[in-house]
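Forwarding the complex inputs:
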Amino acid sequence: MNRISKRQLLFFLACVAPVGKLALLPARLADKAGGDLLFPALLQFLLQAGAIFCVLLLAKRGMSFFELLKNTFGKVAACVLITVYALFLLFAALLPLLEQKLLVQTVFYDTLPSLVAFSPFFLFAVYLVSKPLASFGRMWDILAPLAAFGLAGILVLSVGSADFSALAPVGAAGGKGFFEGTMSAFAWFCDAALLLPLLGKFRYEKGLAWKGTLAYLGGGAAVLFFYAVFYGIFREIAPAQLFAFTATSKYFSGVSTLGRIDYLFIFALSLVMSFWAALPLQEAADCVLEAYGRPRGLPTLLGVGLSALYFVLSVVLDFRFTEALDVITGELVWIFPVFCLLVPLLLLLTRRRRREH
Amino acid sequence: MKTVSGDLEKTKDALKKLLPADDILSFDFRSGSGMRFCVLFADPITDKDLLGEQVIRALKSYAGAPKAEEVSAALTSPETKTEKSLDALAREVLIGNPVLLFSGMDGAVIVGTKKIFPRAVTEPPTDVALKGPREGFIEDFKVNTSLVRRRLKTGELRMETTEVGRRSNTVVVVCYLAGTARQEVVEEVKQKLKDIDIDVIPDSSYLTHFLSSRPYSLVKQVGTTEKPDIFCAKLAEGRVGLIVDGSPIALTVPYLLVEDFQSSEDYFVPSYRATFTRLLRLLALIVAIYLPAFYVAAQLFRLQLFPIKLLLTIAGSIRDIPFSPSLEMLLVLLVLEVLNEASIRMPKYVGMALSVVGALVLGETAVSAGFVSTPAIIMIAFSGIGLYAVPNLIEQTSVVRLVMLLVAGSVGTYGIILATAFMLLYLVTTENFQTPLLAPFSPVVGKDLRDSLIKYNLGSLKTRPKTLHSPNKRRLA
Amino acid sequence: MNIKKFSRTLPMKLWLLLLGVVLFSFFSNDFGLVDIQKTAIILAAGVDKTEDGFSVTAQIAVPKGSDRTTGGTSSVEIEAEGETVSDCVSLIFAKTGWVPKFVFCNLIVVGEEAAKSDMIGALNYFLRNDYMSDSCLLAVCEGKAGALLSSTSAIDDTSSLAIEKLFSNAAVNSGKVVPNSLKDFAISYYGVSESGYLPYVRASEQEGGQNDHAPTSAGAGTNAGGERDEPQKVYIAEETALFSKGKMVGLLPREQTLAFSLLTGKVSTGTFGAEDAGKPVTLTVVKNGGGVSLDLKDGPTAKLALSVTVRLCCRSITAPVEDIVSDSVPSPILKSAKAVLEEYAETLFSMCREAQCDLFQFKRMLYARSRKDYAAWKDSLLLALRPEIEAKVVSMK
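Prediction (whole assembly, three chains):
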């Protein structure tokens, strides 16, 4: 339980990481890039794949993220840097959290529920944060088949309703649409940044960097196919379909006779998504704990603290979601490429200090 | 530590002091050579015929030296040992083994003439199989070990006896196949047994608490079986078994959750049938746990989970019900649990009547009186039946079902999903004896999946489960 | 306090606290959520234009009690007026005390006046509603939608269910009706063509029908067995309303509706009439293929192609008995059929052009093909289009 195996890591990259891109992002991309939504997404996947390749190469050094920083910059600087990184993770946690909240309010209820309905998520987050980060590896063994089952099910039910000619003409959105789509999508592509705190919790094996990158791109391909189906179904009204993965499958003919059988797949993906939404919180806590020590009870205490903070934030941002989303994907979006692309690259380029014996 | 002395009277008095109960009797006699002997025994649990035959008659003509070794050799009992400690002697007397004292002794002789009242070996009521062996363990550990030994005629089968319980001194036999069971697990079991400090162990279920890594957990962490064939199959896979005197339920560790989805019968039917029934058990369990919860959540929070025609039928049925959908379901569930509890404890003939009262009178009348709706009864009935598809997990799953219902009634479908996430996280982080509970699914162990929820043909199961880390990997040549 | 003991027992205390919270919320169960007993399950909605805004008629399902002895679905219609559709829905809540839920609303009918003046105003509420499915059927009706939903159907307890039957797959295969959903209508409106279509429903009185078929389980005022003195109605949706820029701009008669269906290639059981030596003959379509394309080579040309495989269904001329068992259609009839279908398609095209409705999404085709051409033709394409119609009629062998 203290190590993440190679298979678990590949499961994460191929199946769990893509799930975070199935809710709000498709509508956002459709809004910015219209029928060209696949291109910004493709670029993001490629950029992330490169960053993931860097992170996996870093794993060769056999050190944890904190050790890596300590080894390069010294202990004090490493503590400062890892705190900054933890703060970034907390910032990155905001979007999936708000996304999750909105998803719950829209998909799981017939009428708008009060905030109480979402609050159990924070209890779950406390429990999750109190668990060691490496235990996530075993969770991915369960979540990956669930995610694959959910996405495959939704695609099977949806693909018949899609008209792929809606994606034509290619390039209709122009450079502006492509640029805006790419920029706003940065907020959803933190996969490499989420991989950094896992360093040291898995062992590098030969070819892992390539395999990991290919697994991630494989998952990305499935997501792109889903985007194509999504736009093929909704065309011009795609920007209004906020939770893409919950919207595409209801047009399946069997739904009218059997009821919403697609909920089975939607619930499976939602389950995976709740882990996905809480992962940055857990990683932020883990970064802090690794740098400053892990006395008994502190993980739970930290979990309580972080969850309480996010509970307050979700209350404050309850009806300001659109504004928050605009700020995160607008003015503050530059933060994401810095931490998700530059940091892994810089770490890879920094020379390793010789260990003092 | 007090020990025996050469003075017979002194030793006898010391033992009597340790065992002042009225049913501890002594019998004094002399051999032909005039040497004095005394047998101390617990009257109700000692076989006096054997005692007379193998000890008293054999010593009548004894003319040897007052040495424990020589006296022991003169007896006609195959089960003797010598002991000097008074405490150990007292313990043996209480087990039913008489203690032979004699003048000038250097140690007392313990004779194995314990009286056994074994119940007949019958089919266990909780583990009935249509195909396959029908023998079940009984309360006597000797019979149980003999049932195991009969199936595993190999010198590698080790049965190490130990006693647990300060007052009960319950015999616990640790069984394993040397070279097949993982040595670390064997040692951990022995250590855990050694660390137990409790006065009485009336049943093997007491031991599960001490063998579990999370003793307060709802999740089962020790395997149980009443059937020697299953027990032996588990030993052959590399597990360690525990037979507890006085209990017909044997324990096995390490335990995997998937074990309870398997039945002995799966190995006696074609593999496709076994796979089908295992998946059916899983489905039944999922239905049992989630059906009442989703039914309530759908009514309260997400009507769309029902097809419209079903929804209208349900809406029509609950129109005049005085309770909220969640309360109605909780009441019906509690009634079912009470009925279940009562019908198990009742004598069989009363139990039959009770089921009729429960099913017909209560159910039918409650519906026609408008207390509960027909769909609620149907949901609970489905759920109740589903629960019994995996009988070894009933205690756990019925609680999980109740929790799911409460969560569904509180926050709806999202609550169910989060509760499931909680449950999954808890399960994947549970390990016992260095073995993850959810293996071979988490962590995935590819080869072990062949005998998990799916079952390959016996010919394909060439190796022992990798999860158990058996040093002897190959099963099929 | 012993901190060690406290921290050891803390998890148990937290679990107990959590259990307490769950039990409290279970038994109080009130987060402003609406359970099945407080809900109005809306089966269909009718939207009409009024002087001050809109009028919405919600057809609400009334569940039958557990002693139900008959099938069918009872319903009641509640009408409310307001400036917007949203106001009307709020008023329905106020009138009934039931929270209106649209999750099961499978039909929205818009009255003709509303369709002609402000279709998007009528639909905007439904498009924005996160809690309703946009796969619900959409239709326009003659007169008031509220009156249509409140009418007594001759074939079902609930009028909306009777209307939905008109849009079944079997009806689509017959080519007599072209149903559309809220989502598809919205896509066509928000798309570059800004044009769409909806089935047009008319209610007509059933000859001799006086509500004697319906069960008598529900109370008066409902549609299931209420002893209303209203005449029973049957519904027909063989006509198709054309929309452009969110307004109804034309009405296709049944022949052109059939031609539209044939051009989409979905017909497999429909019938149409032709001539056989001056006498009427009915042909059954057993196979259909169709397609519409745009060609810009020699000026914008709309190519409308349809092919049908037919067999004789009904013939008036005297013929030997072998003719009845023969599937083969004589070539004069095939010729006549071809002429009929081409004429239907031509009329269809010219009606659309007249109404400025880009029914076949030519603009979309142009946009997908070339943005440059689209920019050049987008405003004048419909008027400039020259139709090339080709119908191929073959006999079933």
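The mean pLDDT of chain B is 88.
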